[in-house]
Design brief:
CATH superfamily: Metal-dependent hydrolases
Strand order of the largest sheet: 3-5-6-7-8-9
Bound molecules: fe (ii) ion
Distance between the termini: 40 Å
Number of helices: 10
Structural class: alpha/beta
Order of helices and strands: HEHEEHEEHEHEHHEHEHH
Helix content: 25-40%
Number of domains: 1
CATH architecture: Alpha-Beta Barrel
Shape: globular
Number of strands: 9
CATH class: Alpha Beta
Strand content: 15-25%
C-alpha cells in the first residue's frame, strides 16, 4: 500500500528541500557574476521558482583578481535586498564570500575579519584548480584558531584531487575539520565527466555537508529545474547530513 510514495518515479523537489543556497554569485558587477541588477533579479526569480528561500552571497574575494572587501559585500547585499523588496520577490540574502586561500586570506583569518555565516561561523574557501595550494594547512589552522569552520568549495572540480579518484584523499581533508560542498551543477555534468563522477562518489560516501549552486550567470537558470529532479540528490539528502536547510535557524 502507498508504494507510489516511495516509487523511483515519484516526483522530487530537491531545491525546495535544501531551502537555502550557500555558494552563489548573485551580486551584480563585483566579480564574474551577473553584469546588471536585472540579471541578478532574473537569476533569483528562477531560484525562487525552483524552491529556494534565500542565499548566502559568496562573491569572490581574490586579491588582484576580484579585489573585493567585506564592505563591498555588505553594501551589495543591502542594495540587492532592497531591489528584491521593490520587486516583491520574497528571498532572503546574507553577505559572505568565496575566499581564495592565499597570504592575505591568512591575515584576514588571524584578524578575525572574515565574513562568516551560520551557527559554526562557516567560511567558504577555494583553491586554484590544477595544483595543491601551499597555504592551505596554515590557513585552516588560523581559521580554526579564530573560531571559523572552513567549507571547501567544489572539491570535485580540483583536478589535483579528483584525478586521484581516491576516497582516502577526501577523508584526509575531512579529518582536518574541513566540510565539503559540491556544486549542484556538477551532478548535471556542467564541468565535465570527471567532476560529475567524483561529486557522485562524494555524495554516496556521505562526505558532503553542503550543496551550492555556484551560479554566476543567467544562462545557467535552466539547470535549476533539471537539478530539482535529480534522483541521486534526492536519495542522498534522505541519508546524508546535508546542512543547507538548517541555515533557516541563523539566516
Ligand atoms: Fe563560486
Amino acid at each position: 500500500m502507498f508504494s507510489w510514495l516511495t516509487s523511483s518515479r515519484a516526483p522530487v523537489n530537491n531545491l525546495h528541500d535544501l531551502q537555502f543556497d550557500m555558494h552563489c554569485h548573485l551580486l551584480p558587477g563585483i566579480d564574474d557574476g551577473p553584469e546588471s541588477i536585472e540579471e541578478s533579479l532574473a537569476i533569483i526569480k528562477a531560484m525562487v521558482a525552483a524552491g529556494y528561500r534565500g542565499a548566502i552571497c559568496t562573491s569572490h574575494i581574490f586579491p588582484e583578481v576580484y579585489d573585493n572587501k567585506a564592505d563591498d559585500m555588505l553594501r551589495g547585499v543591502d542594495s540587492l535586498q532592497s531591489a528584491l523588496e521593490q520587486n516583491k520577490i520574497d528571498f532572503t540574502l546574507r553577505a559572505s564570500a568565496e575566499y581564495m586561500v592565499d597570504g592575505p586570506f591568512i591575515e584576514l583569518a588571524k584578524a578575525k575579519n572574515l565574513l562568516a555565516f551560520g551557527k559554526k561561523n562557516y567560511v567558504v574557501i577555494e583553491t586554484g584548480f590544477t595544483q595543491e595550494n601551499p597555504y592551505i594547512d596554515e590557513a585552516i589552522y588560523e581559521m580554526q584558531c579564530a573560531g571559523y569552520c572552513p567549507i571547501l568549495a567544489h572539491p570535485e572540480r580540483y583536478i589535483y584531487l579528483s584525478q586521484l579518484k581516491s576516497v582516502e584523499a577526501f577523508e584526509k581533508i575531512i579529518d582536518k575539520g574541513i566540510e565539503l560542498q559540491i556544486n549542484l551543477f556538477s551532478l548535471l555534468g556542467l564541468y565535465g565527466r570527471l567532476s560529475k563522477e567524483v561529486a557522485e562518489i562524494l555524495l554516496k560516501n556521505n562526505f558532503i555537508r553542503w550543496i551550492g549552486t555556484d551560479i554566476h550567470r543567467s544562462q545557467h537558470i535552466t539547470l535549476l529545474q533539471k537539478a530539482n529532479n535529480l534522483r541521486i540528490l534526492c536519495n542522498s539528502m534522505r541519508d546524508n547530513p546535508i546542512q543547507n536547510k538548517y541555515l533557516a535557524e541563523s539566516i
